[in-house]
């Protein structure tokens, strides 16, 4: 069942590439890793693409995960549409999936054969990190976030790869993905922004990232 947004548009973006993404390290929800130059360019392009959709940036609600990489992305997107970054709010329920004890480690050190960790068809974790979250846990906090929204104005939401996929799936009313215990939308590369309104999704701009990394 899709979720009504009362005709309001939700612009949902995955943050730009970070130094951890480039190096192949796990970020999870606590690491505050800065954007690379490419990540900054991705964020700037999202701002440029969003500009044609926004008549009055003061009427756009700015929301972000508390992570440094999402806040940096938000700053660049906000600059592109001439919105006031200082008016944004943060919500920890939009943070990335918790990778527990894996955070900060190189993927290659933990799993020399990446297929042991990642379901390559769906680009999702096959294992739950020690001390980390599974997909149903991510779904639960995002359902809680959605239930708190009044959807009285358009929203710009800067989040993460895994989290944005679950959020989009909930808004679109997608079924539980077999084997993962939660609804999960298709993967979007870094620097991608979509618009969701009353259960319909459109691409605002496609990024040129190289895949799904937490």
TrEMBL record:
The keyword Isomerase applies. Pfam families: His_Phos_1. The keyword Isomerase applies. InterPro entries: His_Pase_superF_clade-1, His_PPase_superfam, PG/BPGM_mutase_AS, PGM_Phosphatase. Keywords: Glycolysis, Isomerase. This is Histidine phosphatase family protein. It comes from Sphingorhabdus arenilitoris.
